[in-house]
Write a structure and sequence with these properties.
It contains 6 helices and 5 strands, in the order H-E-H-E-E-H-H-H-E-E-H. The chain is α+β, with helices and mostly antiparallel strands.
Length: 146
């Protein structure tokens, strides 16, 4: 299974935010969209960073309510060094990257352009579906051999 299989199932929609948007606005966008991370992209095509719930919690722990001031920008707290994947990457590889680097979201980039995003939930669901299919095939083979 590949990342392209996940995108075919869930779609390629990516919710993005500009780096100059206020943290408060980005936070509201996360809540409205019911997602855990926003890809930061000033042009809507390239990944400039990522803003996750984890980034916001860390900033809140050090800055408190000051973080929600109108002059606090996404660029101030976003993760600048973003791990990405491609549509051709295997689900196993993506799981390894997410585990090794302790990230829950990977933007999907093809030819330098943002084409999707996968979350740990997407990856686990795809892996469970894959294991269920393998189990069914083995069960059918065992029944047929009787």
């Amino acid at each position: 299974m590949r990342v392209s299989d996940i995108l075919a199932s869930k779609g390629r929609r990516v919710v993005t935010v500009r780096s100059d948007v206020s943290v408060a606005t980005a936070l509201h966008k996360l809540v409205l969209e019911r997602i855990g991370a926003l890809v930061v992209s000033d042009d809507g095509e390239h990944v400039d960073g990522i803003l996750s719930e984890r980034d916001i919690v860390r900033a809140l722990a050090t800055e408190g309510e000051e973080l929600l001031r109108p002059d606090r920008r996404v660029a101030d707290i976003m993760t600048h060094s973003v791990r990405v994947c491609t549509p051709d990457d295997s689900v196993r590889h993506v799981m390894d990257v997410m585990t090794r680097f302790r990230v829950r979201h990977l933007p999907v980039v093809e030819g330098g352009r943002l084409v999707g995003i996968v979350s740990i939930g997407d990856v686990v669901k795809m892996r469970l579906d894959e294991l269920e299919l393998e189990t069914s095939v083995l069960r059918d083979a065992w029944i047929a051999s009787r």
